[in-house]
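Annual report, structural modelling task.

Input specification for the iron/sulfur cluster complex:
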Amino acid sequence: MTGPAVQRQARRTAGQAERVAHSVALLRQAAVRHPDRVVQVSSLGVEGMVLTDLAARHGLAIPVATLDTGMLHAQTLALLLRIRQRWGIEVEVLQPQAEAIVQFVQRHGERAMFESVALRQACCDLRKVQPMQRLLAGRTAWITGLRREQSSHRGGVDEVTIDDGREKFCPLAAWSEADVWQYVADHDVPYNPLHDDFMPSIGCAPCTRAVLPGEDPRAGRWWWEQQGPRECGLHLAPARATATRAAGVANEVVNGIANGIANGVEVDVANELETEAEATP
Ligand code: SF4
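The model returned the following structure:
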């Protein structure tokens, strides 16, 4: 696709091919370490679409899931069909519990999120965090499109962490916005047309607006809140053990895998991981 968002933001930068190869290596690592127990949790934003393309393009059997909060834009939901058409993937869609939503709206109103941060977070908890907990039950790893550049709060995002007992992979952590859009241009990745309308980060319709040039990419999320991380709670786990043995293993292995991919060499990932794990205390 070559829409306005691509034209505005796609740019070739130094090290791009290496970053792509590194991300593929991380995805491969997630798939190998967690067969049938890993899921890509996609908000259907452009980063999620890039991750889906990366995994599909390299034959990695990673299922995709999303949270339909009941408040998403029609343009966002339309991507479910695009994903099916493009990659043949049936996205698993998690929804909030209807009864809980009815009770919340009856008690606090349709616009509760604008009343207080606490009510906004309660809405996010019902519509996002709780469905996410159901989604991850029984899974040992998940993949997300977080990037360090997206906001100051995300500046410290690790590529592999332990989050609530599961491995959390952020294969695009080091990508710039230019990297993301250049990848979209290079591979004709379908994306949400709302990105063309200056919405770099797209969430629920009432809580998302366009940003101005130079604004933080996430400034359009919960824009009326003056302070705080502008997060819904999915990425705000309390002091979860970070880095960990897995991340330690990851650095060595991923670099080896990425080099192999960049040089067109087949890498036995399972063997690499096993060898590295044995060597790691
Ligand atoms: S983003 Fe807004 S509408 Fe969506 S769950 Fe959070 S508060 Fe509710």
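The chain has one domain: 4-243.
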